[in-house]
Specification:
The structure holds 2 protein chains of 2 kinds.
Chain A: H1 6-10, H2 15-37, H3 41-66, H4 83-111, H5 119-123, H6 125-135
Helix pairs in contact in A: 2-3, 3-4
Chain B: H1 3-11, H2 13-37, H3 40-65, H4 68-112
The chains are: A mainly alpha, B mainly alpha.
Chain lengths: 136, 113
Amino acid sequence: MMHIPLLPLASIEAVRPVFLIIMGVFLMVIAWRLSKISAGWAARMIVAGALLLGFGYAIVMPLYEAGVIERYAPGRTHYHGAAATALAWQAVKLVAMNCGWLFFGLGVALHAKLLSIPARRRAINSPTLASNGSVA
Amino acid sequence: MDLLLEIVLKNGLMFDAVGVIGLGLLGLAAIKLARRDQSWGGTMMSMGAISLLLARFYLLVSPHIIDDSILHMIGPIGISLTIALPPLLLTLGLAGIVWGLWGHERWLSEETR
């Protein structure tokens, strides 16, 4: 079996949880600073998503990596602890990570005005009709 | 187990779809930010969103398509790539999104000052 140096580099056990914690906290801090500049629903969505993601990345994922929480697998029948606990944490993880990304993505989309009609198309209405009429 | 809980948790389809929609929106919004404002934060964010989407897609698809014949075909380097690449993509994607958001926030605060 060949050993590739990339493999241990990508899966250092001690570094990844620390990285996840730093990223989660940093994400929450940046979202809070961003919410001071922008206003309305975009800021609320970004902060809500960042809080969920921060909870997921800074608390739940490191606990999984440390082995405090058992991984839930559909076919698995034997757990060291209670199976219901593993299932509940799986539900918490799914909700926090996926709803976090949804809220965060929606917030950034609102912030970028992705979901609104472009101003150019809105301004076209009456002036172009008048000019077209005069040409015709 | 309750039927609804079973559907939601065992397949994970609903939550995965929610996450993928969110990441897609994030990527599109980041591309729009990068094009409209010429801020490098948007580019970083879209790169991060794309790599997170790639890793998520691989993790979703791999149980269905990867079997022994494919593993035999791609050889030891390919096998170690399948092990090493998804965590690397997840890590780089998260870092890209956070870094891009930071850059965009700094750009915005300089703009409004």
